[in-house]
Design a protein that fits this description.
- This protein has 267 residues and is an alpha/beta fold.
- Helix content is 40%, strand content 16%.
- The chain has nine helices and nine strands.
- The strands form two sheets. The chain has a seven-stranded mixed β-sheet, sandwiched between helices. The protein has a two-stranded parallel ribbon with strand order 8-9.
- The radius of gyration is 17 Å and the shape is globular.
């Protein structure tokens, strides 16, 4: 059984002084090993957590989210952990969801667990919902099966997946690691419903502007996935696999028993 003491939390951070301390304190309450990768921040991100018992890896200049995750994964491997949890540093994810990711991992050993932003979806900006649906279908062509919320940055990776050499920078890395794991290890994903917080009229919480730029980043992701799919060929066979393998959601509470979009529920 996977235990939280055998997990490292990796938090890539670029100018996250506004929320990083609360994110790190929440992660420490759930796991003893927390690794923050400060990607060339110039707003005092490092100073905000300097007194906390975490490992901070600092880039002198910005190198991108993909590079930050690689460095975080590499350090996690030196700790001998069995899995790595990733969280964004801007406060959108709640560390309180980590036990639910671990529970899903124990029910689905060897799977990547995605914290899928299914709760309070009405509060999610429309452009983000549309972009997420588009991204889910695009990445399905690379994995051969559908995943609920491929764009979520809150994930649990088995150690074998975190050890993969994965191409792609920035947000392309997070798309490619799902594809590489599926193609090279046969790894599948299971999603756990979470709530992701956004700057909106329904909340007085403060967040910095998102580093994710839908047009720019989805263009990069789409181009990368398209090249991968075309290189493999067998488009008809891939389409049939996608149709035969809808997303799997681990939802013991039954809260999403009637969620649309062809979700398959594992409890």
């Amino acid at each position: 059984m996977l235990d939280r003491s055998r997990i490292a939390v990796v938090i890539p951070a670029l100018n996250e002084a506004l929320r990083i301390r609360g994110v790190v304190e929440g992660a420490l309450a759930e796991c003893p090993h927390v690794i923050v990768v400060d990607d060339g921040s110039d707003d005092g991100t490092h100073a905000a957590i300097a007194d906390l018992p975490v490992t901070v890896l600092r880039h002198a200049t910005r190198m991108g989210k993909g590079h930050s995750l690689r460095d975080g994964f590499a350090h996690a491997r030196t700790l001998g952990v069995e899995a790595v949890v990733t969280m964004d540093g801007d406060g959108q994810h709640s560390a309180a969801d980590i036990p639910r990711l671990v529970e899903a991992a124990n029910h689905h050993p060897g799977h990547i667990v995605i914290g899928a932003r299914l709760r309070k979806r009405a509060l999610q900006p429309t452009y983000r919902k549309l972009a997420n649906h588009f991204g889910d279908w695009g990445i399905a062509w690379g994995t051969g099966y559908r995943i609920a919320d491929t764009q979520s940055g809150q994930r649990l990776y088995p150690a074998a997946v975190a050890a993969l050499e994965v191409p792609g920078e920035d947000f392309v890395f997070e798309a490619q690691i799902l594809i590489s794991a599926a193609q090279r290890l046969g790894t599948r994903c299971v999603s756990v419903p979470i709530e992701s917080r956004y700057l909106c009229v329904h909340s007085d919480e403060q967040f910095r502007p998102s580093h994710f730029k839908p047009v720019r980043d989805f263009t990069r992701i789409t181009a990368h996935v398209a090249r991968t799919v075309l290189a493999r060929g067998d488009m008809l066979a891939t389409w049939r696999r996608i149709r035969a393998n809808p997303p799997v959601v681990f939802d013991p509470t039954g809260e999403f028993a009637t969620v649309p979009d062809g979700l398959s529920h594992a409890r």
